[in-house]
Structures are given as C-alpha cells and as structure tokens.
Amino acid sequence: MNFKILLLQSIMAMLLLNSCSDEKPTQPADEHLGSVYIVTRPDSAEIFINNMSTRQFSPATVMVSSGVHTIMAKKNGFRDSAISVQVITGEIITRSFDLHKTAQGAISLSSFPQGAMIYINGSNTGKMTPSVIYNLTPGTENVTLMLSGYKDTSFTVAVTAGQTISRTVVLSELPLMVVQYNNIKLFEKAGLGFSGLKLATGTQVNSNSADADIFYDLTEIKSQHLRTPAPLILNYTAFYNRVTFANIDDTVDAPVKSNTGRSWTYSKAITETNYSFLYTQDHHFVKLKITETGGGTGPSDPDKWVRVSYKYNQTARDRRF
C-alpha cells in the first residue's frame, strides 16, 4: 500500500514539473522602467507626462517606461514649460525647468453710483469703484460689485496679457424695506417676562434662546453671546454707540460695519439717550433707542426693565434708513 502511494505521488510530481516547464517566465513589471528626477524654479509645479497629470509636484521622481516622452511643468501664474526626454531602462536622469511668469493683465472698474466693493472670484479685493485691479492672470475673471442699497452685480471679464480692460456698471437700487417696532419691554429677569429679543420680528424670547439677538442684563443691553452661562447657539450682535442723535426717524444711515478698531462693541448702556446702530449675525442693520427704564424700586417692584424702539432693515447688508 505504501509503495503504491509513493509511486502515485512521484507520477503527479513529474506531471506538474512537465506542465510548468512549458510556461514562459514572466518579466518583472518594472523591467522596462526608468526614472526622471524633475526640478523646477520655482518649485511646486504640477508634472505631466505626455499630457497626463502624474499628480506629483516638483521636485519629484517620476517612473516612466523607456523611450521618448514629453514632460511638462504647470504652475498658476507661470507659462507651461515642456521638454522631450529619452528614458533609459533602469537609469535615473535629471531635468530642470526655469518657469517664466505669465504676462499679467488688469481690469479698470467703475460704477454708478461709485463706492461699490470689488470682489474677484469671490474674494474681497479691499478696493472700491472706481479702481484698477492689477496683476491678474490672463483668462476669465468673475467680478462682483456690492454696494449697500443696491443689488449685487456679477459679470465676467476676459483678462488679456499686457492690457487693461475697462468696465462701467450701472447698479440697480433696491427698494428700502425697513420695519419699526415700538416700546418693547424687556425684563432683567424672566420672572415677569422675557429678557431676550429677536430683532427681525420684535419677539420677546428667553435670553438663552437661539432666536435671541440681544438681551437686557442689569445695566446694559448686550449681544446674546455674552449671556452667562453661554447659550448652546451663540448669536453675535454688534453695537455702534458713537451716535449723537436721539431721533430714530432722522433718516441717517448706518456706518460701514468694521471688524477692526473699537467703533463697534457688543453692548449698550441703558443710560444712553441717543440711539445706536446694531449689526446682527445674519447681516442686518438696526437703529435702536432705549425709550424708558424702570423697576427695581423695592420688594413690590424687584425686577428692573427697559423699553426699546427700533427700526430693522430687512435687506441684508443694507445700511439705509
């Protein structure tokens, strides 16, 4: 029995050996590959082989098959640069590119009325019309002009190297949409009523509510985010208190909202008799005045309160009143 088993195993081994001897040996996958080390000045250029992106950026080593290939380097703001190379199997060669800046163009922008903020491809340039925007790469630029009280106006400009393209735009005025709320009473504590206020609707709410924009806190009206303990959802409302007028019907417009300097704060003292401008988290301007204060006179009247009247501009970022 053991002899038969051994004989059978020997025959199977011979058959397997013979079958394998008929197969051609496979070559290693990288047998015909070479390497190109690519350097560009400046670096961080995207590398293309035969117009196909390698998804690598210089400096980098690229593995390619042997033979002649076209290598291209691309970088924003610079002209594409390409060379042909002879790649040799198993060898590493080095190629360098000196990239040259693309000739720049410019756009001259004017508007009627002037003073519109200029955005290029969604980014604020920090300039207002009329202005010239320099050092633009040739191609299509998306321009948006924004001015309080006017519709945002967007358009495209084809920038040409070495030229200044001029555009003049007449802005479309928005209808003035301002609502007024009068003598809304806010309490220092919630025992008798609410201390928070939703400015868009004139609704009294809890000061920790996600709907609250401002709330009354002892000696000041404050932005909701200053409440202690902090609400789960914070709403930031800025106050501009440098106003010397008391009549909210005076048609004076709000100043530009700035995130620098100390002109805008987050509270207003209830002793101030002039109105203040407010700027809500959702970008609406408000003109608010404290009309009356009271309460806190004794055991029978323990809770302080204030009354406020204000105008609310329903158009986002519109400073007009």
Can you tag this structure with a few keywords?
321 residues, mainly beta, six-stranded antiparallel beta sheet, five-stranded antiparallel beta sheet, 25 strands, 6% helix, elongated
In short:
Helices cover 6% and strands 46% of the residues. It is elongated and about 100 Å long. The chain has 321 residues and is mainly β.
What does this structure look like?
- The protein is mainly beta.
- 6% of the residues lie in helices and 46% in strands.
- The chain is built from one helix and 25 strands.
- The chain has one helix at residues 2-21; strands at residues 33-41, 46-49, 52-57, 60-65, 67-74, 81-87, 92-98, 105-112, 117-120, 123-128, 131-136, 139-146, 153-159, 164-170, 178-187, 196-198, 203-205, 214-217, 220-223, 238-240, 264-265, 267-269, 276-279, 285-294, 305-313.
- A six-stranded antiparallel sheet has the order 15-25-24-23-20-21, with no helix packed on it. A five-stranded antiparallel sheet has the order 17-16-18-19-22, with no helix packed on it.
- A hairpin with a 2-residue loop joins β18 and β19 (220-223).
- The longest helix is centred in the first third of the chain and has 20 residues, at 2-21.
- The radius of gyration is 36 Å and the shape is elongated.
Q: How many strand units?
A: 25
Task: Please state the structural category.
Answer: mainly beta
Characterize the overall form: elongated
Distance between the termini: 109 Å
Strand order of the largest sheet: 15-25-24-23-20-21
Count every helix, treating DSSP H or I runs of 4 or more residues as helices: 1
Approximate helicity band: under 10%
| Unreliably modeled segments | 15-29
Please report which band the strand proportion falls in: under 5%, 5-15%, 15-25%, 25-35%, 35-45% or over 45%: over 45%
Following the backbone from N to C, one meets helices and strands in this order, namely: HEEEEEEEEEEEEEEEEEEEEEEEEE
Give the radius of gyration: 36 Å
Q: Quick one: biggest sheet?
A: 6 strands, antiparallel
